[in-house]
Amino acid sequence: MKTGNQSIKTDFILSGLFQYGQMDTFLFVAIVILFAVALMGNIILILLIQLDTRLHTPMYFLLSQLSFMDIMNITTTVPKMVTNFLSNSKTITFLGCEIQTFVFIVLGGTEALLLGFMSYDRYVAICHPLHYPLLMSKKICWFMVTCAWTSCSINALVHTLYVFHLPFCRSRLINHFFCELPSLLQLACQNTSQYEYTVILSGLIILLLPFLAILASYACVLTVVFQMSSGKGQTRAVSTCSSHLIVASLFYVTALSTYTRPHSLHSLGQDKTVAVFYTIITPLLNPFIYSLRNKEVIGAMRSLLI
User: Fold this and answer.
1) Which residues touch 143 (CB under 8 Å, ≥6 apart)?
2) Rg (CA), the chain
3) Are 113 and 148 in contact (CB under 8 A)?
4) Measured between alpha carbons, how far is 61 from 118 in angstroms, rounded to an integer?
5) Percent of the chain with pLDDT over 90
6) What is the pTM of this model?
7) Which residues share a beta bridge with 173?
8) Helix (H) and strand (E) counts for the chain?
9) What residues pair up with 14 in beta bridges, in sequence order?
10) In contact, 92 and 179? CB cutoff 8 Å
């Protein structure tokens, strides 16, 4: 038990996404470029939404929240990974690892719920347009966002406190490029099989239920869309929904594969590869999918540039 107490004061070591070969140097440069592009893309999208009054609608309010989460998400993991690679130091303090785990769980859960709310917004706008001002008022939008942040913060706090009170008496090496909960459980020297069921349950509630709600809402949306007589209306609705569905599927499928599988089915190399998608690729794609496929955002950008 002394070992468990000592473990609390010991730094962790992150194996990282890269080693130090020529190919890994190339991948490192690519990740840094993707990070910069994702950061700038989300910042620009938030600025466009704030500066153009035409984008002051519930849909773009939720989209600005998504971009804000993506900025926080990518800055929670990538800068530390870059610093470790450049300094040849792979350590992270116990407190730093705890904070990174908590923030990442909060952001991941909140984004999962927010994507569900965004699909609800499109469902109401297309299937119940006359009730849209009532069902998606500013007050309701803020209520949804507040509920998402609050519930996921509580969920993250519970999981973080439990995991970091476990005795880590095995290797201090985390086979990952950031402190992610499933990777930390592999270092615990007590049986965590019962706790893993609570992780899976949380994953099913926060990830799977919103994803199923998204699929159901878009099934209803597509049914209404293909009953429209206007070809232009069909094209616009399908374009908006398809862009959201692409981002949502990429995010949910990769996150579900990490958080709803038992410890015995995890592959260390595969976990790191999958994590790249919901920590780097998704924040990169979000602003471009929503802007390049959206006439209002493109119009706002042109107005600012002219």
Assistant:
1) none
2) 21
3) yes
4) 10
5) 47
6) 0.89
7) 13
8) 13, 3
9) 174
10) yes
Q: What is the side-by-side order of every strand in the sheet holding 173-174?
A: 91-92, 12-14, 173-174
Both tokens assigned to 69: 């989460």
In contact, 46 and 68? CB cutoff 8 Å: yes
pLDDT digits (tens, 9 = 90+) for 238-292: 776 777 788 789 899 999 999 988 776 767 677 888 899 999 999 998 888 877 6
Residue 5 is predicted with a pLDDT of: 42
Burial class (CB in 10 A: 0-12, 13-18, 19+), 9: exposed
Given a contact cutoff of 8 angstroms between Cβ atoms, the answer to whether 258 and 275 are in contact is yes
Distance CA 56, CA 25 (A): 43
Burial class (CB in 10 A: 0-12, 13-18, 19+), 283: buried
Query: What residues have CB less than 8 Å from 243, skipping those under 6 apart?
Result: 289, 290, 293, 294
Residue in the block written with tokens 């994590």: 275
Distances (CA, A) of 219 to 62, 81, 126, 188, 240: 21, 40, 12, 43, 14
- The DSSP code sequence of 243-257 is HHHHHHHHHHHHHHH
Which amino acid makes up residue 21?
A: G
DSSP string, 185-200: HTT-SS--HHHHHHHH
Nearest 5°: the CA angle 183, 188, 189 is 150
Scanning the structure block, which residue is given the tokens 């069902």?
135
Task: Report the alpha-carbon distance of residue 301 to residue 306 in Å, rounded.
Answer: 9
From the list 256, 10, 215, 222, the residue with the least C-alpha distance to 116 is 215
DSSP-assigned beta bridge partners for residue 13: 91, 173
Q: How many CB atoms lie within 10 A of CB 91?
A: 14
